Amino acid sequence: MRLLPVHELARRAGLGAQEDPWPDYLARFHAERPGVIQEVLSRSIAGQRNPYSWLARAVSRSVVSVADVECGAGALARELDDGRRRVIGIEDSAPELETAMGTGSQFISWVRGSVDNLPLADHSMDAVVTSMGMVTVPDPRLLVDEASRVLRPGGVFACMAPTIRPLPMALARQAAALTARVGSTPSFPGALELRMTDLLAQRGLRKVEDARSCYVFTVRDAADADLIINAMYLPGSTPARRRSARDWLVRRAQDKGQVELPIPMRRVVALKDPEPASAIV
Description:
With 281 residues, the protein is of the alpha/beta class. The chain has helices at residues 6-12, 22-32, 36-42, 51-56, 75-80, 94-101, 133-136, 140-150, 169-182, 196-201, 222-230, 239-256, and strands spanning 65-69, 86-91, 108-112, 125-130, 151-162, 205-219, 259-272. α9 (169-182) runs antiparallel to α12 and α11 (222-230) runs antiparallel to α12. The chain is globular.
């Protein structure tokens, strides 16, 4: 069994050191491949839904203002747009934001901003959501701090991100074979698996739901193989290993007709505690 270096284990646990090059890696990733993660997740299916529609369902129809933090190319924001509510997509990557702006509607506002200083007033939003922010920011506490600040009392915070389970055995074997060829497990600077309940509670957010679902991305041809490999965060891999993994996917899809790859996701929903009566003036 291949042993991982300590810094790689720490990174996958969301405990990466400040000097880790994640900000530079992520900036390059999203500058070179804007919209690629959105395309993969939009095509990943469990039943009749994709992960974006699953997360959007956590936001009640009565919500009239919602901020999508780290909105990427805007898939979740568009899922939340019902032609009535105010939706604000906030993204710090200019290429991702430009992609989002090309496909929006009159009810969505696209704003450049960072998770540690959201361009929103205190207590101004009914809901704050993020599809990947909790695992792509080096310190997810900053995102939750800002979400709590801009939420009204009783407001909803909902987040979602890739996780480690559920993972059906047949799909787990496919994932393991791909991982062996690419030479790295998909990694993230943040972590949704650790500290979630305490992290939320410390910021006045009470967890009310913690759900998991396994989505499937299907590879049928070379274009699909290119897409899934390009959408993986693989700072520990090399171009040669990625090409090898891509070629293996193409060959297997040709032999079997298709290759199904698992994308297990976790959705967490919390409510901001109402302000104590003594604090209401």
